[in-house]
Amino acid sequence: MSGHWESPGFSRREAVKEDVVSLDCYLDNAATTPVAPEVARAMLEAMGVASEHRLIGSFANPSAAYRWGVQASRCVDAARGVVATTLGGQADEVVFTSGGTEANNLAILGLASALRRRGRHLITTEVEHRSVLDACHALEEEGWEVTRLPVDDAGQVQASQVQRALRPDTVLCTLAHVNNEVGTIQPIAEIAQALGTRGPILHVDGVQACGKMPTPYALWGVGLASLSAHKINGPKGVGALWIRAGVRVRPLFHGGGQQGGLRPGTENVPGIVGFRRALELATADATETTRRLREHKLRLWRRLREALPGLAANGPDPEDPVRAAPHILNVCFERCLSGVVRAEVLLHRMEEHGLACSAGSACSARRPAPSHVLVALRLGQGCIGSSLRFSVGLQTATAEIDRAVDIIRTVVSEHAEVAARWSR
Amino acid sequence: MVPLSTREELVIGRYAEIALKGGNRRPFERALVRRVKDQLGERARVEVSGGRVLVHLVPGAALSDATLALCRSFGVVSAQPAVRLLRPVEMSEVASEVIALAQQAIQRGASSFKVAARRADKGFFLNSLELNRVLGAAVAEATGLRVDVHHSDLELEVDVRPDAVFLAGVRVAGPGGLPTGVSGRAVALLSGGIDSPVAAYLAAKRGLALSAVYFHTFPYTGEGARQKVYDLCRRLTVYAGPVRLWVVHFTEIQEAIAELVPEPMRTVVARRMMVRLAEEVARREHAGALITGDSLGQVASQTLEALSAIGEISTLPLLRPLVAWDKTEIVSLARRIDTYSVSIRPFDDCCVLFAPQHPRTRPTRAEAARAEERLDIKTLMASALRKSERLRATPGSLEPLTLQDVR
Question: What fold does the segment set A286-421 form as a domain?
Answer without folding.
Answer: Aspartate Aminotransferase, domain 1 (3.90.1150)
